[in-house]
Amino acid sequence: MTFWEIMEMSENIYTNIDSIFEGDPCGRRAANRDEDINEDSIIFQDSRDAAEDDDTCMGRPAANPSGSKSLGRRPSRAGDVCWGLLCVLLLAGIISLGFYRNTVMNSYKDNLTKEKNQLETSNNNLTTERDQLQTSYKNMTKKRNQLQVSYNKLPGPKGWTLFQSTWYYISSEVKSWDESRQDCNERGADLVIINSKEEQTFLTNLNKRIWIGLTDKDKEGTWKWVDGTPLTTSYWMGKNPDNKMEEDCAEISIGPVEGNWDDFSCATHLNRICEQKH
């Protein structure tokens, strides 16, 4: 019962009492009886409302004979439970996704770190192998140079001279070009083939007229070395070769390094120089 209903009931009671006192004296007793009934009803209603408030505070459902309030609250509580469960499931899903993401990222990071370490190890191994090869190459080069020095100090055959790892035999007697080549072949060598300016200078410094392994016997004007290779670099003197009197063999004459070759008759007797390469 609301406050306004109580106030309206009180006004009706006072109105009835006044009408009774003005009219029927017997109505006064009836009014007093109705007043007592209404007061008892108010007290009972107040007591029930207070009890409901206490039960609500204590967490117990309040007594409701009609059951209208209880039936009205049940759907609301069911909705709250459903929303709570949805929130819990959503939170669990977010946590699971975060955990899965961290797991995947950590696995990917570990794989990258492992591959990087493997590449660094391979690079270090290759660098070590390269350094070892460089050290071995330097050691072998050093040993080769030492052996070359030792070899150069060895006494050669009698009459032979060593120049740039090549042995040269300078004859003391004179022969024709063909005889000179035959003599060189018997010594395990051949008439000299000039391959460099240094070798040309070495032979010029001997200050002798000597046969070299150059001829155009096979085809006039086509000069070849005794190993069959064509002439590419030459040191001819003046307008030579001029092919006077069937001059098909070449000699080194006394003169400047840049031009002291001369074509001469192969039958002429000159000194010879044999070359033995290793």
UniProtKB/TrEMBL annotation:
Residues 105-150 form a coiled coil. The chain crosses the membrane at residues 81-100. Keywords: Coiled coil, Lectin, Membrane, Transmembrane, Transmembrane helix. It comes from Oncorhynchus mykiss (Rainbow trout). Residues 163-275 form the C-type lectin domain. It holds the Pfam family Lectin_C. SMART domains: CLECT (SM00034). One of its GO terms (molecular function) is carbohydrate binding. It comes from the Eukaryota. The keyword Glycoprotein does not apply. The keyword Transmembrane applies. Residues 37-75 are annotated as: Disordered. This is C-type lectin domain-containing protein.
